[in-house]
Design a protein that fits this description.
- There is one protein chain.
- By secondary structure, the chain is mainly alpha-helical.
- 63% of the residues lie in helices and 0% in strands.
- The longest helix is centred in the middle third of the chain and has 18 residues.
- The chain is globular and about 30 Å long.
Length: 71
């Protein structure tokens, strides 16, 4: 499968910036990229294990809550 990405989308631009800064090993960055991919599979109806996405969401949610609180 091919995942088409809009390079001008703010999320993609931000991820690209983080990657060019050498932060590819950052767990939040890699988890976010994985979540985007998994979400695309879900949206297409071709995800082999939809329930498995829950693990990724649970991993990233604490960070989202922290970001929302301004940290």
């Amino acid at each position: 499968r091919i995942l088409e990405v809009n390079p001008r989308h703010p999320i993609i631009r931000n991820l690209a910036t983080q990657l060019t800064r050498g932060k590819a090993d950052n767990i939040r960055l890699t988890t976010t990229i994985r979540l985007l991919y998994e979400n695309a599979l879900l949206a297409d109806g071709i995800h082999p294990n939809p329930a498995g996405v829950e693990v990724i969401v649970e991993r990233i949610l604490p960070h989202v809550v922290t970001w929302l609180n301004g940290a």
